[in-house]
Amino acid sequence: MSHQTDIEIARAARAKPIQDIGARLGIPSEHLLPYGHDKAKVDQGFITSLSDRPNGKLILVTAINPTPAGEGKTTTTVGLGDGLSRIGKKAAICIREASLGPNFGMKGGAAGGGHAQVIPMEDMNLHFTGDFHAITSAHNLLSAMIDNHIYWGNELEIDERRVVWRRVLDMNDRALRDVVTSLGGVANGFPRQTGFDITVASEVMAILCLASDLQDLQRRLGDMIVAYRRDRSPIYARDLKADGAMTVLLKDAMQPNLVQTLEHTPAFVHGGPFANIAHGCNSVIATTTALKLADYVVTEAGFGADLGAEKFMNIKCRKAGLSPDCVVLVATIRAMKMNGGVAKADLGAENVSAVESGCANLGRHIENLKSFGVPVVVGINHFTGDTEAEIAAVQAYVAGQGAEAVVCRHWAEGSRGITDLATRVAALADSGQAQFAPLYGDDMPLFDKIDCVAKRIYRADEVLAPTAIRDQLRAWEEAGYGHLPICMAKTQYSFSTDPNLRGAPTGHSLPVREVRLSAGAGFVVAICGDIMTMPGLPRVPSAEKIMLNDAGAVTGLF
Question: Is 383 a catalytic residue?
Fold first, then answer.
């Protein structure tokens, strides 16, 4: 018997009016700015009025390193929110918005799956409330103002060879990675080599997701470094007087979006920075708003715990003053087999020994997460082919790590399939066990911060960085940026920089080939290995299957 697709399940759901969802959190209807009947933005004035309220419990959902077998982190985040609601808790969910690039490429949507989804699914995975378009426009306005300033005499003495601000587009398009602009004669400006990144890699996106309000947003936008003079002194966005107009374009995008799950749990869906080149979490304003309105807030971080959770702890929590009360680490039996050396085509057969071998990846993530002083529980995202012996092997291994692994069937059963995990998470969050602390202090030198993450999270033996990179880090320290956290950019598929090195590798080195200063967002990016900031489409992109049917409904989304 064939299963319903995600979009078929979502379309069959009966959404409640968004005012009813807001009422569950105590948001008066006059403070909701509706986008249709089933989604709305929450008014900034109302958010400001919540500042004196105590925070609820913050629960982070993260995962092992991604594999082609699939882990289901967003699905588990949504399911856990519904599960907490089912056991009588006042819960809310905070996740990122979906980028059009991966949606039309290979990854698909970002609204969960099966019977644990956020709706409206089509809107969530397409234009939604236009936030990404606003970010794209604000980013490219700055690009236009840079080239325009150079064209009209270059009063700031920008070195055209050192313009570091690229343009962005929310689409996978490899042809735009490296381009030459301003061809066609004097009237079109001065030709220079540049390129495009995908919108989610924009520093504007990272800033919107870390800013506390519109004033903080404009300050951070003004702090962005866009180019350098010949003497290597920086040019900031405020030098071009671009920060005000950019803030105007982002005024509505700054307000978090409220939607609902299939079971009507309130969900804030806002922002979506890359989990490689940026910190990979939903917006601070959405998370802090949810914490004022709900007793339990479930959020997630991008990719595996070595990237997403590390940045959630060391960047987002540090910058926003947040403190997680519990972490859920998502894993699947299928992924354990792949980490144990089983090919994707052979995952259907029971293989307990491969599961046991693959658990090394899971164990390292548990150890790393515990090092932040937060209790950890493993959520086994259940697939129909999982056997009792394989599940027992994972549970026994996790018990040996001083944690508990709970089987979750939310994809097939919705909230009733995840009540065991919800009960355990609520108990851990309420226990007061969490003694959260970031991995390193603000005063640690920048290179030492890179070394700390490399050795304590990735288990690298050493960091390989040329003298020029070390000198650049010292120069930023002298310029007053030494207190910033580090944002590590590396492959999501391995603890190392080799995507094919699964499990829990040791004896490897971490090569840092470039460092970038995101002065507005407030972190230093260390690029380790080949990191793509403008993806390409696969041989058969998902876009080929997305269309309207005869009834005018979207089909092909997943």
Answer: yes
